[in-house]
Design brief:
By secondary structure, this protein is an alpha+beta fold. Strands 1, 2, 3, 4, 5, 6, 7 and 8 form an eight-stranded antiparallel beta sheet that branches. It has helices spanning 2-12, 16-23, 103-110, 122-129, and strands spanning 27-30, 33-43, 70-75, 79-85, 91-101, 145-148, 157-159, 173-175. It has a single domain (5-49, 61-176), classed as Methylpurine-DNA glycosylase (MPG) (3-methyladenine DNA Glycosylase, Chain A). Helix 3 packs across helix 4 (122-129). It binds a DNA duplex (13 and 13 nucleotides) through residues 41, 43, 49-51, 54, 57-60, 73-79, 81, 83, 93, 95, 121-124, 161-165, 183.
Amino acid sequence: MTVDREWMHAFFDRPAPAVAMDLIGAEFAVGGVGGLIVETEAYTDDDPASHTYNGQTPRNRAMFGPPSSIYVYRSYGIHWCLNFVCHTASVVLIRALEPLSGLDLMRQRRAMVNPALLCSGPGRLCQALAITGGLNGLSLSDAIFSLTIPSKPSAVTAGLRIGITKAADVPWRFGIKGSPFLSKKM
DNA sequence: CTTTGGATTGTCT
DNA sequence: GACAATCCAAAGA
């Protein structure tokens, strides 16, 4: 257990783009509900598109937490978005999962049947996994979470981040090209 | 105190 | 493709 936590800390204590790339293909679940991470985005501390760009505030406080903790924020007043904290106030936004376990619960929470629509977007994924602001700041080593990094790296494609206006030219979106579970084609 | 603008999604045309 | 829904932190006055 201690080993797991330390390994996880080391994995996340690196620049966000590297972590974002290595998370593709990882298996992530909350309370046994989850799947394979197929899409991520990186935000760094000196990134104009990042919530940390203007320093620490009450909202982004969790982004300054230890590596392997999580940052959850509300988007457009409606949705929640999940981030994994990396080195120095940089984070990885989890944008899409390929559902593997707990499909029935996901369908119930999302009021959707099509598996391609259950977790294909940051807001959808949080709804399917029941992630809310109440989990903000928790550690991924907490018992309700499970995260398994594959021994073999996946074939990862990089592209431009989605839905932002600042620093929109940085290729820090990562994903599995051709996956039907992406929020948007790569 | 007031205004502004989203790291989105579902629905309608 | 266009747009409304709906919250609240951040910034400005």
